[in-house]
């Protein structure tokens, strides 16, 4: 069952008046439970593709379907709601809200959904236990290491049981060992909870552990393995 | 909603120094505004009370049209009905009739005479209504309403080259047009500070004036004193309705002393303008602070938006943060302002003696008083809140238009 | 060099600098506009008093000003007049007879200050002739009287009516004379209007039976700012039978009021200055903390702390100076059209008239205040920058680089 499907996806954006053809026609299909990495040299358009798939950006031409709904039909507020309920995001940096504790950060999207305090708390604590970060519960981001922050970010991304988690260079600021541990975690989530993961990365470690690799060059898929 | 409040509160304290400075700015402006307004309004009240109790009273009953164009013949009927209507008002603590005229006063033994403004009063009732009797400078006030005694403005007496105990002749045009003249014994001088009375005025008994001017049954004004300044308009309305004489009007002190009233209003308006400027300056400070704190967090906002926080909630967040800072500042400013005003109310500032004369000339006391009227605090606080909301519009717009991606990638 | 760097640093964050600048501009402009209005009002009050009756300088018999009695006419006034004609610095002078009496019509009467003048001379010293609303000013004919509009209403008379003026004569008996109202005036001061009337000098002398005597010389100086000089120059030519009083002595209340206004402006300036300082401290702090790493690097490679301190303070100083100049310009520009047309305060007409101002106020920004603002605001900017500059310097190079 395909979750995301694109058709002739093109994206052009303006860079100081010069049009940049970031995506030149992408057709792809991603199925539930996949563990896919989008790789490629810089300028290949991998972050752009991830952004479009994640409903953060709109394509210039072509369509994106999510579970048979065309994202182009949705208005800004609907997309926001869509991201809240169906997607999870992990970024390279600035993932967590600095003034909230780890626990509160994980509870955050549940709060946006209006879940009760009891439910949020239980779910969040349970997840933290599972991910072995329970001791970080009352700490603020500036009291954690980079690796710890990213682990919390993973928890936050999956706590609402999203369909897909989009991860943009999640290991970029981490050393090899920490990065590896993070990947272990995400693979575990993928396997146990059948959450689809789509990465964008140029980190060799990430690429080598990909189950499916989409290699982009100059806005087109060069290889799909 | 609770989430927003929690986030907003914690966000403020992320940059303690900046928030405290902004808070301090708001507190200072509020404090200064309350102090200034307190002094303005408090001093007005003191002066109104003074002017009213010295001569004009809080309300007066006159013949319609006398105030605009005073003429001897425009007198109001002073009869049982009027007195009954006045007595029926529970907040009127005293009333006293007056007759006014212009005349020529000359010393009998010295050879000078001067034009003069004649004020005829009934000393018994006048005592209960105004402090005019206490303004006697030397000698004593007239003893009764029908005596042939006269109290003279202290400057006028000097110019007449006369002294207490001398006889003066007062010449004036009566109700029927004929010139009447009487001799009076000077029993005292009066000093009010206003050159009208002091340099040109004389005071005689009401009944004597009636004889001199052939004015029976009528007076030019009935001066009323109230127990509560705030009720002036209410009593005015109710008394107007109670009076059956349609040619009589009830005037408040502002209508009797329009110059005085307007100078107060003029000062009031200039005071409000200065306040506005103060608050506008603070607005710039708030604008800068909020703008800075917002742009600093664009990355974070971008992430928050991408995980699905509705845009409008982010805008609310910024607005709530601003309101928190403003309100804390206002509370501190209010407290400080209250302390300052209270202190001045208990310890009014007396200006130097050199200023006393200048102020008296315009009918003001050389005192600086303050006021604890709650409206001052309310008005200032609301103005500060409003101006801070206006300042937050621009940063809020920036947050409203922020796209998740642009935020994430912002440098 | 430092100046150059400071200048460029200011514009690194255009928006922030513009916001701070705007607050300074508003504060400065506001101070100047308010000052302009206050000054304008006071100037008008003074001018109106001087030009309607007080003039720049008055000469009387010694003691007359405190005790205006009919016996105190000027001794040997023709000798005094001769002296005046030969004193430099006098633009014009007028002889006056003054008394306090009663004016009556069939309808009403009123105590008045009577002034007897020679029309052609008085016109050069007083502007009442320009304030006629009906009829004309005195023409040195017999039995003319001009009164104010308010007086005419009170007496219920009009142009051409006959009224009686009564005053006591030199020997104490009341003198009276019939006059015809040939002109009605209205000045900016309702207090003046309420009690002043003018008749011809010879008529006044006849009314008071004082022969040729006069009571006052009213003098208009060529340069009123040097009035004390003229005062002493005239005084030195006269003995102590006379008193020579300039307008500052004759209008002590005005002078006091001008003084009082100056002081309250000072207080207002301080309050506005304080309000501005918070914004400056905040802005400079933000800009310093943003550049903490950069400062750390600079100091690590050898920039002395004194220079860094000065650089930060200079940035604030530049902002203060630009804001002040722009604020002064804005204030003057805003005031300029009103200098010509006047601010219409007719809502407060009655009150303003009782001060002697008139319903329109012509603002006049004082040079003095402009200078004091121009000095004060940049100083405030510098004061606001001291704490942030101190903070910038206090950082150890190593600490600063690691500060994220």
What is the structure about, briefly put?
The complex is a heterotrimer of chains A (225), B (411) and C (404). Chain B is α+β, with helices and mostly antiparallel strands.
Core attributes:
heterotrimer, A: 225 residues, alpha/beta, Rossmann fold, six-stranded mixed β-sheet, 7 helices, 10 strands, B: 411 residues, 2 domains, two-stranded antiparallel sheet
Order of helices and strands of chain C: HHEHEEHEEHEEHEHEHEHHHHEHEHH
Query: What's the end-to-end separation of chain C, in Å?
Result: 29 Å
CATH class of chain A: Alpha Beta
Q: What is the β-strand count of chain A?
A: 10
Kindly state the percentage of residues in helix of chain A: 25-40%
> What percentage of the residues of chain A does DSSP assign to strands (E)?
25-35%
| Radius of gyration of chain A, whole Å | 17 Å
Overall 3D shape of chain A: globular
Secondary structural class of chain C: alpha+beta
Strand order of the largest sheet of chain A: 6-7-8-3-9-10
SS strand fraction of chain C: 15-25%
Calculate Rg of chain C over CA atoms: 31 Å
Describe this structure in words.
The complex is a heterotrimer of chains A (225), B (411) and C (404). By secondary structure, chain A is of the alpha/beta class. Chain A has a single domain (34-56, 73-224), classed as P-loop containing nucleotide triphosphate hydrolases (Rossmann fold). Chain A is built from seven helices and ten strands. Chain A has helices at residues 46-53, 76-86, 102-112, 117-130, 146-158, 176-193, 204-208, and strands spanning 2-15, 18-31, 35-39, 61-66, 69-70, 87-90, 164-168, 196-200, 212-217, 220-224. Chain A has a six-stranded mixed beta sheet with strand order 6-7-8-3-9-10, sandwiched between helices. Chain A has a four-stranded antiparallel beta sheet with strand order 2-1-4-5, with helices on one face. The longest helix of chain A has 18 residues, at 176-193. Chain A is globular and about 45 Å long. Chain B is of the alpha+beta class. Chain B has helices spanning 2-12, 16-56, 80-88, 123-129, 154-159, 195-200, 206-213, 232-242, 253-256, 258-296, 298-306, 311-346, 353-361, 374-401, 404-408; strands spanning 59-63, 76-77, 92-107, 113-121, 136-139, 149-153, 167-173, 179-190, 201-205, 218-219, 221-226, 248-252, 349-350, 367-368. Chain B is elongated and about 100 Å long. With 404 residues, chain C is α+β, with helices and mostly antiparallel strands. Chain C has two domains: 2-49 and 254-402, no CATH class; 63-239, no CATH class. Chain C contains 15 helices and twelve strands. Chain C has helices at residues 2-10, 14-54, 77-85, 119-122, 149-155, 190-195, 201-208, 227-236, 247-250, 252-290, 292-300, 305-341, 349-355, 367-394, 397-402; strands at 57-61, 90-104, 109-117, 132-135, 144-148, 162-168, 174-185, 196-200, 216-221, 242-246, 343-344, 360-361. In chain C, the strands form two sheets. In chain C, strands 2-3-8-5-7-6 form a six-stranded mixed barrel. In chain C, strands 11-12 form a two-stranded antiparallel sheet. In chain C, a hairpin with a 4-residue loop joins strand 2 (90-104) and strand 3 (109-117). The two termini of chain C are 29 Å apart. The relative contact order of chain C is 0.18. At the B-C interface, helix 2, strand 3, strand 4, strand 7 and helix 10 of B face helix 2, strand 2, strand 3, strand 6 and helix 10 of C.
